[in-house]
Amino acid sequence: MKYYNKLIFEISKEGRQGFNLTEKNIPEVKIPKELLRVTPAELPEVSEFDVVRHYTNVSQKNFGVETGFYPLGSCTMKYNPKINDELATLSGFANIHPLQPVETVQGLLKIYHETQKILAEISGLAAYSLNPFAGAHGELAGLMIIQAYHDKRHDSKRNKIIIPDSAHGTNPASATVCGFETVEIKSNLDGTVNLEALKAVLNDETAGLMLTNPNTAGVFEKDIAEISRLVHEAGGLLYYDGANLNAILGKTRPGDMGFDITHINLHKTFSTPHGGGGPGSGPVGVCEKLLEFLPNPIVKEKNGFYYFEDSADSIGALGLFYGNASVYIRAYVYLMTFGNESMSDIGLMAVLNANYIKESLKDVFELPIKGHCMHEFVFDGLKDQSTGVKTLDVAKRLLDYGYHAPTVYFPLIFSQSMMIEPTEVESKETLDEFINIMRVVAQEAKDNPELVKTAPHNTIVRRLDEAKAARQPIVKFRDIK
After folding, report:
1. Does residue 254 have a cis bond before it (omega within 30 degrees)?
2. The pTM is what?
3. Alpha-carbon dihedral angle through residues 388, 389, 392, 394, given to the nearest 10 degrees
4. Is the residue at 77 inside a domain?
């Protein structure tokens, strides 16, 4: 086993140290006996150089949007401009303490306030709270607002949230966490809402409908005005999952479509850090009639002074402090960089890139939804199914060529789904290279299917038993056989 493939524990040598602390005249501190360890901590014993070399090598194994093309459908993996990081890490922002008086953080509160206003303008809603710490957290906030709205109207029997079968998995999960009963409806073949299926489940128990537009298959809901009318006439509210907002920036707005509530994934649409467990952000916005229910607090301004304000009917605070400051600064810089005049270019280029890849590969990959797509699209496996090569095999083989795989087996409306989203940041040259490799893999599936079925071959770790990894995970070094 090569040095750079070993775990940190495997290069550990008993007695080796990576530090040397000199004696200091510091009073001895007695630790209560009940807090002392019974056995020594299991820590690796390595030199400083070993640590640096090990983790440098580990970092070089990572794949990210800065190392290669990342066509992960539904995730909008776009580049994070470095100017966003540079300004977010200015000492005046980075060294702020969350318990400081508002008088001492007026610059940050101004950014919060202006970001709230810009997001409201972009989405066509009345106001936003920057309180939620993630997209799913924003979903939960929106659903709590739906609950609070109906409760205040003494209409608490409305406990059902309607969700299409093509929706993101967080939608039913968030609704369930919030205490709602989820009602799944079958979609049309292109993933759009089936109006007859919707009409069949609307009743006086309907609290709301959760949608994203364009939908998960990259198709715009052409019947959105009728959907909005039906839901509102039934007494429900319309919730917009902002995962696919990137496709429609500057062209149309959720509020104009009739949505009452939305959350926005800043890491998707507005280019803040994405993945790795955070930092996240999912600001939630509402129409005029729901303002009082927004999470506390909201940043307000009067005569040039910025302050926090609470609402008595709010769903409450969603965290001890107000959102992830560094994320909002990054998003604000991104918004200011584009401005109103260039915002619509984002969606246009994302749509162009997606359609270019789709049209270039539809002769070798099965295209279940014909015609124009928005920011992403779905293939249903290879066109030639006789080889037995599945979507997972294609995804694994792409790793051998240095590409991150697209999203596979989602949405669930197709058996061999492969969802591709190139985003607007990729050049034609990058797209052409990806198209070429996809065609190479399709040809390999015909000429040598076993090569594709047993991929990857060039990665550090070969194909895993994914079912076993999920059901019997090894999470401790001492459990490795």
Report:
1. no
2. 0.91
3. -170
4. no
